[in-house]
Amino acid sequence: MTTLPPPPASRRLGSSDIAISPLAWGMWRLAENGRTASEAAALVHAALDAGITLLDTADIYGFNGGGGFGDAEALLGEVLAAEPGLRSRMVLASKGGIMPPLPYDQSAEYLSGAIDASLRRMKVDTIDLYQIHRPDILTHPQEVARTLEDALAVGKIRSLGVSNFTQAQIDALAHFLDTPLVATQPEISPLRIDCFENGELDQAMRLGLTPLAWSPLGGGRLLSPETERDKAVASELDRIAGEQGVSRSVAAYGWLMAHPAGIVPIIGSQSAERIAEGAQALGMTWTRQDWYAVLVAARGVRLP
After folding, report:
1. What is the pLDDT of residues 80-121, one digit of tens each?
2. Residues 6+ away with beta carbon under 8 Å from 94
3. Residue 130 annotated as catalytic
4. What are the pLDDT digits (tens) for 17-58?
5. Where are the domains of the chain?
6. Which residue in 61, 110, 130, 253 is the catalytic one?
7. Top-level CATH class of 11-299?
8. For residue 200, what are the contacts with CB-CB under 8 A and spacing of at least 6?
9. Which residues contact 283 (CB under 8 A, 6 or more apart)?
10. Which residues are in the NADP-dependent oxidoreductase domain (predicted)?
């Protein structure tokens, strides 16, 4: 029985010259529970030592509804200030364009200031991948494009991406950019499968965008399934994971990575062991039968 091509050990970020790992580590919860800089550094080391070079954060990570805006970036900044050599080992991604408590703002004034603030908090000169976090429907995409191009021109950012954009919103922004977008960050998991059939991943392949999958474990629902659908997907993943000697979460990462769009799952765990474990997904093999078995479980109906 033939198997699907394995993910490469390294790949390009979209059409850029930036090489990234096939897995990423996300810092949404980095600043929780009073985590110290030394504790955060241990997690950064765990990712890098596991071969995970793409580290993804955002200016709103750490915001709890009242305060904490920028805390995750600031904590990473402490790590990088203490160990400057870490910066050259990572591809640093961040996001902006959300102004707490929840207005989206990508006006030139706000977005340019947000980029500068992220640089200051992380104590870096350049962000390798800067992503618009969620679309601001009150800012013309031409204005967003101009702000991003200005930041590129002076070296504040190296490449551009979007997160949570619709296909039409991606097309609109791309139309006004001189520099191609290189990444899109939607929610993708064995429990969020819309993108496989609604054109999101087809558009990414057409435009050469690297899909970065946030919440690849379905917000934790794959680890603690409750609904019949969740349990059915977990069961299929467990079967495949058991045959290959890996955990259910590793199988979920591997399932995403087997797709031809080159999906990069963003590991959200803040446990060094779980971060390192994720790299086992690189060693998985997938048949079409096994891959589609997971999809059928998620769809809840047989394929036509």
Report:
1. 999 999 999 999 999 999 999 889 999 999 999 999 999 999
2. 56, 57, 58, 59, 73, 118, 122, 127, 129, 130, 131
3. no
4. 999 999 999 999 999 999 999 999 999 999 999 999 999 999
5. 11-299
6. 61
7. alpha beta
8. 167, 184, 186, 194, 211
9. 244, 246
10. 23-291
